[in-house]
Amino acid sequence: TTLKRGGSMTLQRSVSLTSKNGSMKPRGRSNMSAGRGRKRKRGSVSRAEKSERKRLTGVLDDLARRLCKIRDRGLCRKCGKAGLECHHIHSRRHASIRFNLLNLLSLCPVCHRFMHDDPVSARDWIAMEIGAENLDLLDRARNWPELTLGEMDALVTIYRNRLKGTIQNMP
Fold first, then answer.
1. Residue 45's Cα: distance from chain center in Å?
2. Which residues pair with 27 in a beta bridge?
3. Residue 31: is its pLDDT beyond 60?
């Protein structure tokens, strides 16, 4: 069968219209590459988009972590010790607020363990630390749609500029 595409260009497919039992179902494989000509399911994402999202997620995780530690002056927000880890108030799976600095706290390993071991007490402490209204805002925002690639790219630029400005202003 010859399929015409765009005027003079033709595409050859080797397809037999009859099967062994004589039915008229197409059989055989196309000479076209596996991905070409196929429609993606609604809402599906291309490999290139997945790859770019993964790359930007790694970059943003690193930038947000660094900015969080700088914001908190290298000290645990709960006890004041050094040796920091970044704690997400709402877990990283909530993509809409994963990189939001309001969702991040610098904590020492002991205080970080406390946050995960006693979530009720931790939430009370967090409400006092960042303010109940900010915690409510995070609660609502965690169910928003995830950032688009364009929004992620813009956030990378904003965070890089903020980091550059912060480092330049250090003594």
1. 13
2. 16
3. no
